[in-house]
Amino acid sequence: MQLVGGLKDKLPKMQELFVERVRAIPEYSGHAVSGQDLQSAAAKAIELTLDAMAGKEHYPRLLDFATDLGERRARQGLPAEALISAVRLDFPIIWATLLEISDGDDAALLVNRAEDVWRVVDDYATATHSSYLAARVSMAQEEAGVRQEFISALFGAQGRLPETRDRFAKAFNLEPERPYSIAAAKEQSAAELRRVASAPNRSRSMFLHQAEEYTYLFWPEPRDAGFQDAPDKHLSSIPCGVATAHAGLVDLAAAGRIAAALSDLATPNDQGPITVDRHWIRLARARMDALGVEIGAGLDAQLAAARPDEIERLHETVSAFLANGSVSVTANQLYCHRNTILNRMRRFKELTGIDLMVPVQAARAVVAWA
């Protein structure tokens, strides 16, 4: 107790030494922690450490201070390593001061005190670190919550308001009128979208949104078309719907609805994204089916006047021609004479009224057999 009393007489000097050494830690040399905050914390930490050395009844106050300090430093953005390095400076400073005020008769007592000092400082450091980590987790959860609030607003009624889009853009340093791509998926494909978004180098530029059964992932389109780490390249093997909000955030919700509709068109054979450009035929057929327009059944009924083997040949020929648009290429593919292909196309017109050489008429067959 006498040594502890002597240490308290040296408190101003220990505080000054502590602040000097902490300032030598690079992370403390900036403006994360003010000089007044650092000096106040130094004095309090050393004082409470000395009290805890004097008696265990003082421990709760030290641990309460450690809890407050850990949370405060976390919210100030100080790295954990820098914080613990500073906290553990208490031991060498207190120990050096103990050696300074002791004499030869205190040798045995000093040996015992070394363990006491280290134990108290270690408990203080552990409590500070635990509080710091808990605060960082809480901050991450708060940040995620705020992030989701901004995102959800874009897809709701507020998304129609310019201020909502501007607020989102400013919060994440984005341009509201820049084109955005959006992907949508369900079930296993949705899990793949979440995996893509969770990558450390993409978590800030890609945004997840969950609405009902769909998971949405959207991102600003890169200005450089050849950008190697473009987000859409990471979706190349995921059967999800992908659409573009060409006018920026104002079109995002509408593009999301398109992406969701496209994702519903995915089949087990699809190994990549479903887009309007590549799968418009499938989309058109699905929309007609939803309206009750049985365009496929109608075409099949018209062909029913032919024999089954003839129907098979007509289907084969028409499908090949619609895929390549060339009579000669179709003839080569089917190992037929060019005239045979033309005859079958004329027969198809007789039965269905569709002239395959007229694009607007051929489109009916394209969609019907999608």
Automatic annotation (TrEMBL):
Q: Where is the PucR C-terminal helix-turn-helix domain?
A: 314-368
Return any one Pfam family short name.
HTH_30
**Span of domain RsbT co-antagonist protein RsbRD N-terminal:** 21-144
Protein origin, superkingdom: Bacteria
Name of this protein = Uncharacterized protein
Q: What organism is listed for this UniProt entry?
A: Arthrobacter crystallopoietes BAB-32
